[in-house]
Write a structure and sequence with these properties.
Beta-lactamase; Lipocalin; ten-stranded antiparallel sheet; 12 helices; globular
Length: 465
Amino acid sequence: MSRILPRSIPEAEGVSSVVLRRFVEALGELDSVHSVMVMRHGRVIAEGWKKPYAPEVPHMLFSLSKSFTSCAVGFACAEGKLSLDARLVDLFRDKLPERIDPKFETMRIRHLLSMSSGHDHCTMDDIQGKPDWERAFFQTELAYEPGTHFCYNSGASYMLAAAVVHTTGESLCDYLRPRLFEPLGIAPRLWELSPQGIETGGWGFNLTTEEIASFAQCLLEGGRRNGRQIIPAEYFKQATSVQADNSMNDQPDWKVGYGFQFWRCRHNAFRGDGAFGQYAIAMPEQDMALAITSGLRNMQQILDLVWDLLLPGAGESALPPAPGDVSALRNELDAWAMPILASVGMKLEMQRYLLDENDLHFRNLEFVSFDDHVELTLDGETLRAGYGYLADNLPTWHEPMPRRIAASVRRISDREFELLACCYETPFQWDFRLEIGAESVTLARTANLCFRTADWPVLTGRRQE
């Protein structure tokens, strides 16, 4: 993978490798951070991936996607194709149902950007599953006048993407490519689409860690890259300033103000973020930028470590060389790895089962064990898991979108097995428990996180000759 950003030694940029190592160790103790890239003065001073997560592998961004959608709106406004004060009903006249809440008449683009659309809930569940997401959005009820109440709303972000697509005549990715992606070195990447073929806007984008870091560095530089203004300056200033009061939130870094699809942070920092800890963080006072991908339930934990460990370590001038500390930091990062089940392999001939009726509509299960790996097959799709190592799988196993998986296996007994699968383009890990009886089988799958993936009902079945 070609590098986008320049590298440097931490001490040359005024940060101690000892401080960075403490930060990395603390991240490693969380369950779980998948990658980190720290930048100071425009140069990468620390980077690491928990194997099988890797530099060249894109990671799901979830709501960090919103910040890229915001940039698209900024470009469209600067080019006169859209306006912050454009009314949504004027942009989508052909999508309006016969009856809409009258408060929609005052809803403007700026209200969607600042999460003050007037809703009292996220409308994503209201529009997903409907054949026309724009029409479904206008069928929702508004609890408040637009512009008066903050409510985090991914459906509003989708409408921003739709507004850009409708007014520019280009897909969101095509529109952003020459304006943002190419200047920042971002390669063509997957973005999920609505039934109308429009990027989902508020979620669904995927980037490598370095591409996230390149975006974070652009944010840190006020929307610039190599002295050139990339993101329109006036829009950028508004987007990263407080546009809505979110002080009703509980977590300390979720209550200091919201911009246009960007969050303000403590310590005069700001960020784009996504579920389970996907971060592009800009810290202007320290001239630092961070990219982090994770699979965490409590996202505040990461930001607390940034403020408590990393922020105080940003010195004003270069430090004396410390090659031993640099080496220790690199060794710490090189050792990062996701858990691997360890066990002695065993041979077991192919076992075939007809599954009982189940909500997942699986019909057939097959299992075979070799000296170094096992193969678990459901309805023709096989998951390979290694004894004491991660076996790679393409594509993702029985998931809506093809994703890469690496899996290991532990033999509990001659008839009981545990498979641990890491879907390493996502935050998700799955734990499978399989019991092979003389005439029956039982399979259970639990997930580390339940958003777009979930625990399965227990599958049972009978032996097939």
